[in-house]
């Protein structure tokens, strides 16, 4: 059972945030998802603009002085960015519960990602555009060759629900139970070993998994892996970084400056947000209220594990103030 339902049953006022670019966030005042400009965002824009907007909206609508935030994976990373970009919001957080929190990405053990990551510059190129677009209007530029390739999988977004993601998972994962088992095994090869995922849940996974984001969001994972033990902003290349950050290297987020109270749950079998990366995060947070490592949990167990209510969500609820 998802935590939102558990919390609602306990009379908490539950708000579900959402990342721009997925199938629930395709509206814009002037742009459409068919335009490249719509997709010019990375973790930094989500953390700097979207998360603070959600928080301020909730606090205004409810009239409350504080809220509690529960995040998973990148949902934690963008929270950290929001707290650093808008330090006044730290005082509005009762507690932040971080589930498999993304920060440093140096020790990922997923083989195909480790092989692919060094080539990230081949799939997203910096400001020096062969199309000669004005430099202050460009967020990132994809080479013409790569653009053609990415169009086959739903660009300008990455694995958006209108394109490759939906068609692929319906065809490969949802036709038979054997296919569902194979897809479960594929998920486990990416995120870590787990016997806690029910193949019968695969159609539900597919409805909600890989449902659209920008190429830059995906590339930033690889950039952070390549950078080692650091939690950094998007890397625009030497010239782009000088324009954006005043340095040839991208901005490093100083997690020690976060003053909101944080409690971390992590997985001992997580191949994406590994124990070593979580240990690095724990060493940086100065207002850490505690941490709990579930030894047999991998990345998706925090959301879809069969025993997640007993092993995790009841502990999360115990950390929250009463409704």
Structure summarized in a few sentences:
The chain has one domain (3-319): Alpha/Beta hydrolase fold, catalytic domain (Rossmann fold, 3-Layer(aba) Sandwich). The protein is globular, with a radius of gyration of 20 Å.
The CATH topology is given as Rossmann fold
Strand content bin: 5-15%
Helix/strand order, N-terminal first: HHEHEHHHEHHHEHHEHEHH
Helix amount: 40-55%
CATH superfamily descriptor: Alpha/Beta hydrolase fold, catalytic domain
Separation, N- and C-terminal Cα atoms: 19 Å
Radius of gyration: 20 Å
Low-confidence stretches: 122-155
Mean pLDDT: 80
What is the fold's blueprint, element by element?
Layout: H1 3-9, H2 43-62, E1 67-72, H3 74-85, E2 93-99, H4 111-116, H5 120-123, H6 144-151, E3 157-158, H7 164-173, H8 177-191, H9 202-208, E4 213-214, H10 215-227, H11 237-245, E5 262-267, H12 275-284, E6 288-294, H13 301-304, H14 308-319
Parallel strand pairs: 1-2, 2-5, 5-6
Antiparallel strand pairs: 3-4
List keywords for this structure.
AB_hydrolase_1, alpha/beta, about 325 residues, 6 strands, 14 helices, AB_hydrolase_fold, Rossmann fold, lipid metabolism
Question: How would you describe what is shown here?
Answer:
- The chain has 14 helices and 6 strands.
- By secondary structure, the protein is of the alpha/beta class.
- The strands form 2 sheets. The protein has a 4-stranded parallel beta sheet, sandwiched between helices. Strands 3-4 form a two-stranded antiparallel ribbon.
- It is globular.
